[in-house]
Amino acid sequence: MRSPNQCLRNGETPPRIPSHHHQQHFHSTVAVQKLRRFNTLILVFRFASFCFCLTSTIFMATNTRGSNYPNWRDFEAFRFVLAANAIVALYSLAEIGASVWEIFRGTTVLPEIVQVWFDFGHDQAFAYLLLAADAAGTSLARTLGVSETCMDSNAFCMQADISIALGYAGFVFLGLSSLLAGFRVVCFMVLGSRFHI
Amino acid sequence: MRSPNQCLRNGETPPRIPSHHHQQHFHSTVAVQKLRRFNTLILVFRFASFCFCLTSTIFMATNTRGSNYPNWRDFEAFRFVLAANAIVALYSLAEIGASVWEIFRGTTVLPEIVQVWFDFGHDQAFAYLLLAADAAGTSLARTLGVSETCMDSNAFCMQADISIALGYAGFVFLGLSSLLAGFRVVCFMVLGSRFHI
Description:
Chain A is an all-alpha fold. The first copy, chain A, is built from 7 helices and no strands.
């Protein structure tokens, strides 16, 4: 695509802000505190997203009650919900690790430019994936709601609904993470460095 | 996709680089040409998005064949597909107007800062809306596909499928517009102005 360098930190012409001013700014205690608060906020969102998606996955995966009852595996959209939530849960777990690393080590796991774009790109893609899965699941759940399947086995439908609702909650927190990740991309492009402790 | 000059050519407030250097650079023919190419690309994406969503809306709205046949109004997800596509078609039309205005007048319709955030925010929100609607529609269409409804009236299901597929195409182009809009937001934040012909 394009490199952040194009906009701002195009190496040979950085003279917009004198670099000593730059460093001075970021080395101040206030800046470090703000950075830590920002990182912690991201961590909280990631953790919330992980919890919701993991719970959603578990709710869907355990939605079986023997061979006489409907099974989530029989419904394409429910399989999609489970898969999407599981993927986002795994991704969130990895990102939690990366965030913790960053908070304690002060550097990113991947090279900085790769990390900011990796986070933002994956947040966006997985947010779309999760929303699509949840919307598909909702549509199926509502169709089932008026069918015989739900008359016969109300618990099955209830559990599927809960799983989907948890998926939406995971989506909200993933979206919030995505916002912050986008903000970090902009910071990186503007200042040439996301973390400069 | 993008060129560095797009970022660079904006700006009556270019405090980082002495303004004479800036203007000299940015008022060059090459820069103007690149800006025009960028604007035209956005316009093309908006237009494609408009066409697909409008066609999708029409396909869904005309999916009725008398009282003995199924009707799209009876299905919640199909109503959602129609509404989302109609909204995005209207929005795209408005954005086409704004783009044309910009290409010919050289200024944005709204104040610049409002315009860049308006475009980006709405692109994102409507992309999520459209994807959710299409995913819900797909889920319903697949459920119907193995039900009696589609055995009795295959044309109804076929037309609904086409409408949903067109909606996905609209989503792709809306997503591309959103990427470019995001790029403009970054440019605006970096240089203080998006377009300055």
